[in-house]
Amino acid sequence: MTDTASVLPSPVETETVAADTRAARAALNGLAALLATATVGESRLPADALAEGQDRLTQALGATPAAPNAPEGLPGLAGCGLGGLREPDAPLDLRAHPALIAPLCGLLAAHDGTAVILADALPKGLVPLLETMGAAVQGADHGARPPLSLRGTPTLMVPAMVPEDQPHEPVPLALARLFAGLACPGRTTAALPPTLGGPLADLLAAFGIPVALAPCGARLALTVTGEAETTPASLTADWVTAPPWVRAAQAASTGAITVAIDGPAAAGKGTLARSLADALGLAYLDTGRLYRATGYSVLQAGGDPSDPAAAEQAARSLDTRVLADPALRSEAAGDAASRVAAIPAVRDALLAFQRQFARTPPDGAWGAVLDGRDIGSVVCPSAPVKLFVTASAETRAQRRFLELRDAGQDVIESRILQDMKARDARDSSRGIAPLVPAADAVVLDTSDLDRTEALAAAFALAGDRLRAAGSDVARASMSHTGAS
Ligand code: DC
């Protein structure tokens, strides 16, 4: 069993994501400081969330610094609550924090009071949005140029966006609506790039704000319910890469947790599955390799992969040490795999291994990520996290074309597309374990996402499901102990 671990790749993808999220980290830490200010009680934040003038900003809005906590030394901030921000008696200088202008204006627009904002430039469309919501705005060029004087109203109305427009809404305006929506009745949905939307959903959840996530074109849609009670958060310095739900899910899991990732060829699910496993400390199984190893072993014995008896025999006597063999990536092994995969006795023979892997992952991991075609629907139907990763046939064909061309192969893109469409039709219509998303799977279309964005979206969606699963466990154990 331990040999299966050798098919685990290096954590390169995870590092890439960490590097890319670093750019958004400063803005996210600023948002953390803002949320702590709008929360009654003492929050713990990473030191950089309260550095570089953000401490002045939070204090101008009524927050008070608290002594660092003893073991971790994290700075503390006692906030004044949603709807309780103080009217600042001096201009708020956001020249060094342009990413905070829109969310802060959104939040202040819901407060009865006037704030003056100093900035080098204002996000385009912010002033009309604030006015539409009911705030009074004054500034040079009818409020188009800073400084900006903003008078909020407790009866703010946040405009809803039709879903088709959400993937195109400028990010600052989406943030302004979302933060305004925190202090207003009803639901507000804002779609953000996954690298920002994912950590922001984690941040809101860390402050006890219920947030629902859904894929939305090339973005993630965050839906918040206004006037939610916020609770103080405790964020460590690495909260973006190790959000609180990772530890919470680990602590709440009584058995091994399973992340099921299904989808067609070249949709990017393998990369996502490996990276998720690395980021979460889970074991990883590429179940396609089981079918490839079975087909390949029939070929090596001189047999026909379409012969049910030979294929079943190969599946039943599969030696998992061969799973790391690079020869399994070959076209011949792929073709043999697709033949043996259509034989019910083969699927049956491989089922036990896959379920065993999920139930007792190697090396004591707290769970496993399995990727394939039928993980969420057949192999692990009760997995708490199910993603169906897909992309248009054209996108997948182009990715496969570039991959093969870079590997020095002489390939024609139109031929690959043709084969891809034929294989999709075969996989989706086959009688046994056809390629269809499980009813409770989240469908993530990666056509318009690059690798980093796709991973950020998958990470956030997995977190959303694990958070929900964790609170189910917490609720169940509370009702067990008689708590209400
Ligand atoms: O993902 P891949 O290309 O390595 O998969 C090889 C073949 O195995 C492919 O034809 C689909 C099939 N397969 C399957 O039927 N069920 C799985 N869980 C995984 C792969």
What does this structure look like?
The chain is built from 17 helices and 15 strands. It has 484 residues and is an alpha/beta fold. The protein has two domains: 2-242, Enolpyruvate transferase domain (UDP-n-acetylglucosamine1-carboxyvinyl-transferase, Chain, Alpha-beta prism), CATH 3.65.10; 251-450, Rossmann fold (3-Layer(aba) Sandwich). A five-stranded parallel beta sheet has the order 12-13-11-14-15, sandwiched between helices. A four-stranded mixed beta sheet has the order 4-5-7-6. Helix 9 (269-280) packs across helix 17. The longest helix is centred in the last third of the chain and has 30 residues, at 451-480. It is elongated. The two termini are 43 Å apart. The relative contact order is 0.12. The structure holds 2'-deoxycytidine-5'-monophosphate (DC). 2'-deoxycytidine-5'-monophosphate binds next to helix 10 and helix 12.
Bound small molecules, deduplicated: 2'-deoxycytidine-5'-monophosphate
Distance between the ends: 43 Å
Radius of gyration from CA coordinates: 26 Å
Number of helices: 17
Given as residue ranges, the uncertain stretches (5+ residues, pLDDT < 50) are 1-19, 473-484
- Per DSSP, what share of the residues sits in E-state strands of 2 or more residues? 15-25%
Which oligomeric form is depicted?
single chain
- Using the coordinates shown, work out and report the CATH topology of the largest domain: UDP-n-acetylglucosamine1-carboxyvinyl-transferase, Chain
Gross geometry: elongated
Query: Helix/strand/pairing class, anyone?
Result: alpha/beta
Number of domains: 2
Give the beta-strand count: 15
CATH class categorisation of the largest domain: Alpha Beta
Side-by-side strand order of the widest sheet: 12-13-11-14-15
Helix content: 40-55%
The CATH homologous superfamily of the largest domain corresponds to Enolpyruvate transferase domain
**Major β-sheet profile:** 5 strands, parallel
Mean pLDDT value:
87
Using the 3D structure, state the CATH architecture of the largest domain. Alpha-beta prism
